[in-house]
């Protein structure tokens, strides 16, 4: 109890610099996901997003939020809110808020992926067999919700009846979340390479998150040192995979812009208005809306 009391006294006097940095990270996480939410809604299509990418990201986020909520250190800090003021309490829980915002944002991506999933209900024979099917999208939702229920029930059991093993449960969730986060971009890289276009994948989101992964890895490396390689090494791996996906997407965007300019120039040379220029398969963000979703 004395250790807990000392921890509460420490939290009662938060460091303003650390508080400011933590708030900046929370806002940065939220802002980084907004372009992806907007792009899916604006296009009214989730074409181009890999179901496995969405599933791994959602399950990883669920495991991470369950991990931080069940860690003894987190529950101890939450218990200190009864002894310290509102501002120190908010500062103490910013780490939980960071994970919570990230989980909420990716869970919303999963919902948008399902809501705006492109379907050819009227012409099923026109369905591109290389694209994900509606059944796969439903499986993503089902598995995501099933894991959420599993993590919730398991956390309740280990926090209360089996409290002696709660750290083992939290460590399991943390390792699972880290492992899934490390590989979640691989299926999206494959999907983007197969489609030869970005589709509904947000390039601005990756532009924010890719350098963010390396910055976060550097901050962890400074704080934990070489011995903490398992923590900051994960973010380096994630940043590298995000960087590969970003480079691939930028290459396709550059290709499409060149093709669009060439098409407009050809039409202008033939004396036709640029407004009548047809779009190629990868020319526009609207391609899936006009073709694949009819």
UniProtKB/TrEMBL annotation:
Membrane as UniProt keyword: yes
Pfam families in UniProt: PQ-loop (PF04193)
Compositional bias annotation for Polar residues: 272-287
Domain of life of the organism encoding this protein: Eukaryota
Region entry Disordered, spans: 270-294
Main location group: membrane
Transmembrane spans: 16-36, 48-70, 90-117, 138-160, 172-191, 203-225, 231-254
Keyword annotations of the record: Membrane, Transmembrane, Transmembrane helix
Gene Ontology annotations for the cellular component aspect, listed alphabetically: membrane
Cell compartments where the protein resides: Membrane
Membrane topology: Multi-pass membrane protein
InterPro entries from the UniProt entry: LAAT-1, PQ-loop_rpt
The keyword Transmembrane appears for this protein: yes
PANTHER family attached to this UniProt entry: PQ-LOOP REPEAT-CONTAINING PROTEIN, SEVEN TRANSMEMBRANE PROTEIN 1-RELATED
Protein name: PQ loop repeat protein-like protein
Organism: Lentithecium fluviatile CBS 122367
């Amino acid at each position: 109890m004395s250790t807990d009391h000392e921890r509460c006294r420490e939290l009662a006097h938060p460091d303003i610099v650390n508080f400011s940095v933590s708030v900046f990270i929370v806002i940065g996480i939220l802002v980084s996901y907004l372009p992806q939410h907007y792009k899916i809604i604006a296009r009214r299509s989730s074409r181009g997003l890999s179901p496995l990418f969405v599933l791994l990201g959602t399950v990883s986020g669920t495991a991470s939020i369950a991990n931080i909520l069940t860690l003894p250190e987190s529950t101890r800090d939450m218990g200190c809110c009864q002894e310290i003021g509102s501002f120190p309490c908010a500062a103490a829980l910013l780490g939980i808020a960071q994970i919570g915002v990230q989980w909420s944002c990716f869970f919303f991506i999963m919902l948008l992926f399902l809501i705006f999933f492109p379907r050819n209900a009227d012409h099923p024979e026109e369905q591109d067999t290389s694209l994900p099917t509606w059944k796969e999208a439903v499986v993503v939702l089902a598995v995501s919700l099933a894991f959420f229920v599993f993590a919730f029930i398991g956390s309740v059991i280990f926090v209360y009846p089996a409290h002696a093993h709660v750290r083992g449960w939290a460590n399991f969730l943390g390792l699972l979340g880290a492992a899934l986060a490390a590989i979640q971009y691989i299926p999206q890289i494959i999907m983007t390479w197969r489609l030869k276009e970005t589709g509904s994948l947000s390039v601005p989101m990756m532009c924010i998150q890719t350098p963010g992964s390396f910055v976060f890895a550097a901050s962890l490396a400074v704080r934990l040192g070489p011995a903490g390689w398992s923590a900051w090494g994960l973010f380096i791996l994630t940043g590298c995979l995000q960087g590969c996906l970003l480079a691939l997407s930028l290459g396709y965007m550059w290709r499409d812009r060149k093709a669009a300019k060439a098409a407009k120039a050809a039409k202008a040379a033939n004396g036709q208005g640029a407004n009548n220029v047809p779009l190629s398969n990868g020319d526009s963000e609207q391609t899936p809306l006009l073709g694949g979703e009819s």
